[in-house]
Write a structure and sequence with these properties.
Layout: E1 5-6, H1 15-23, E2 34-41, E3 45-53, H2 64-68, E4 71-73, E5 76-80, E6 86-89, H3 91-104, H4 112-126, E7 137-146, E8 158-168, E9 179-183, H5 201-216, E10 221-225, E11 233-236, E12 239-245, E13 252-255, H6 266-278, E14 282-285, H7 290-299, E15 302-309, E16 313-322, E17 325-328, H8 336-350, E18 360-362
Parallel strand pairs: 1-3, 9-10, 9-16, 13-14
Antiparallel strand pairs: 2-3, 2-8, 4-7, 5-6, 5-7, 6-18, 7-8, 10-11, 11-12, 12-13, 12-15, 15-16, 16-17
Helix pairs in contact: 3-4
The structure holds pyridoxal-5'-phosphate (PLP).
Amino acid sequence: MTTFTVQRSAGAVSADQRRAILEDPGFGRHFTDHMVSIRYHDQRGWYEPSVVPYGPISLDPATNFIHYGQSIFEGMKAYRHADGHIRTFRPLRNAHRFRSSARRLAMPEMPAELFIESLVQLAAVDGDWVPSDPEKSLYLRPFMFSTEVGLGVKPANEYQYLLIASPAGAYFPRGVAPVSVWLTPDYVRAAVGGTGEAKCAGNYAASLIAQAEASLHGCDQVVWLDAKEHEWVEEMGGMNLFFVFGTGDSARLITPPLTGSLLPGVTRDSILIMAQQDLGIQVSEEPISVDQWKAGCESGEISEVFACGTAAVVTPVGQVKSRVGSWTVAEGGAGPITMQLRDSLLGVQSGRLPDKHAWMFELA
Ligand SMILES: Cc1ncc(COP(=O)(O)O)c(C=O)c1O
């Protein structure tokens, strides 16, 4: 196992200050006292694994990633369970996705054990930052960028990995609220062969204008369509999408297939498993078009639509606006299958329900 050096922060917040922050942490506003740093050089491999005080980093203006964007990240949550232990959800999936993002961006692939060990190391020093309220969590943000200095366009020979953490409040403090979505006809997130299945910074930079367009249309979120025909539904902002056809015992769950242009969500994969194996709901990965979505809602065949991802877990989609018109999904509220899946998943993550699939990983 890799040995990390630990440099304790002299400026750590007091227990009282931390408690006040954890009362109402919001999202991405506050950061813990420490961060993990690991460096990489072509000649040395991974080196200087360390836990250091959280703080600014200094970069040469010609640092490669600022110009050419070799920058990838992950996102996951740590929960404090009733037994006092800190656990996170399926971190190996994130470790492997981090490796495949790195491969696509011609960056070094961090061994999964080192990735997991970095989470364990941060939990060991900043464990007090994991809220005990089951509605709250500590959001973990591992990321890596190139640090070679110079303006040549080529894969860099040096990289910096950092892991920071930020306490996160309940995503829907006033109850689950359905979102409205805008199906953008003007912008695409990714094309097959591009970087859509990688969690790289550039994908998010390219999404911002479409999100702004969604807001102009009075919608909460943008939904991406395929790059070629602008007809096939891909995903929503930072979440994957599911469609419920039928109701009750005859309900079927459909999600767009991973064609290479969608991010393979950990939540998406978990819902496919949970729905089928635990709840006996038929699931399939099938393309779904804008016209099918509209017609399905108009005929009542589509009874629920929801989005899923680490941040909001499961979010109902209530209203849709697109170039072919506007429509409502069922009554525009949160449907029973959406809420059942949300409750089942949150139950496992927060430790309230049994972890049948051994998805929770103990960090501390
Ligand atoms: C573009 C995009 N799609 C889907 C997801 C959902 O992935 P996960 O369930 O792993 O959080 C995310 C969030 O990471 C995302 O950024």
